Amino acid sequence: MSAKGKLITLEGIDGSGKSTIARRLSSHPGFSDFVFTREPTGSWIGEAVDHAIHSDTDHLAELLLFAADHAEHISKLIRPSLESGRNIVSDRYSASRYAYQGMTLSGRFDDPLGWVRDMHRGWTIEPDLTILFDVDPETAVARCGSRGDKTKFEKIGFLTGVRENYLRLAEESSESFIIINAGKSMDDNEAEVIDIISSFL
Ligand SMILES: Nc1ncnc2c1ncn2[C@@H]1O[C@H](COP(=O)(O)OP(=O)(O)OP(=O)(O)O)[C@@H](O)[C@H]1O
Ligand SMILES: Cc1cn([C@H]2C[C@H](O)[C@@H](COP(=O)(O)O)O2)c(=O)[nH]c1=O
């Protein structure tokens, strides 16, 4: 049986620049044998998620849609790719749920981040490495300003809480998280991410 691949996830608030770097890596010759993927996925469940995040869907229902999309992602792409020895870069993964739904569900549970993380236990596949694109929400929202696909999450107050949740996750799982200062230029962010992944592998 071939060696197991590694699962590397890119996380951060909206506008932190993850998708830009994922796109750049996917056309970089050093990453030609990697699988590039994202959450929400392009499956029909991902389309339902997209509907939820552009409407006033109940927050628990929204979490369950995101989690269903994650389960489908794992069974159709993540597990088979890792088992066949492929390395994966995923633009958003489970930590997005812990950080974002850890905010939307505040008031509904005592420790929403912990509750959402617990409901993934026993079936998710943990990333081998998470690169957290850390940037202040003012910069991130300004970057998102001009694009057309805005979600209800792209607000400074909300993203401030999401960022705090991400930093808590990074502190609690410091062995598998690396935080980068994503306030730099795209070229600098790309170079740093390539260095991190190359050293990790
Ligand atoms: N380092 C950067 N400096 C300035 N602008 C940037 C930088 N990185 C990305 N951008 C711009 O910011 C916007 C958001 O970038 P991108 O889509 O990569 O962010 P994201 O973190 O993936 O956001 P989301 O998760 O909401 O999709 C884009 O218009 C992109 O061109
Ligand atoms: C996976 C996931 C995503 N979100 C949020 C984060 C973004 O605001 C949108 C969509 O993501 P994109 O990268 O901008 O396409 O959904 C979330 O709240 N929970 C999640 O699990």
TrEMBL record:
InterPro entries per UniProt: P-loop_NTPase (IPR027417), Thymidylate_kin-like_dom (IPR039430), Thymidylate_kinase (IPR018094)
One GO cellular component term noted in the UniProt record for this chain: cytoplasm
Pfam families (UniProt xref): Thymidylate_kin
EC number: 2.7.4.9
Binding site for ATP: G12, I13, D14, G15, S16, G17, K18, S19
Keyword annotations of the record: ATP-binding, Kinase, Nucleotide biosynthesis, Nucleotide-binding, Transferase
Principal EC category: transferase
Record has Zinc as a keyword: no
Catalytic activity: dTMP + ATP = dTDP + ADP
GO biological process, one term: dUDP biosynthetic process
Domain Thymidylate kinase-like positions: 10-192
Entry keyword DNA damage: no
Gene Ontology MF terms: ATP binding; dTMP kinase activity
Family the entry assigns: Belongs to the thymidylate kinase family.
Protein name per its UniProtKB record: Probable thymidylate kinase
Record gene name: tmk
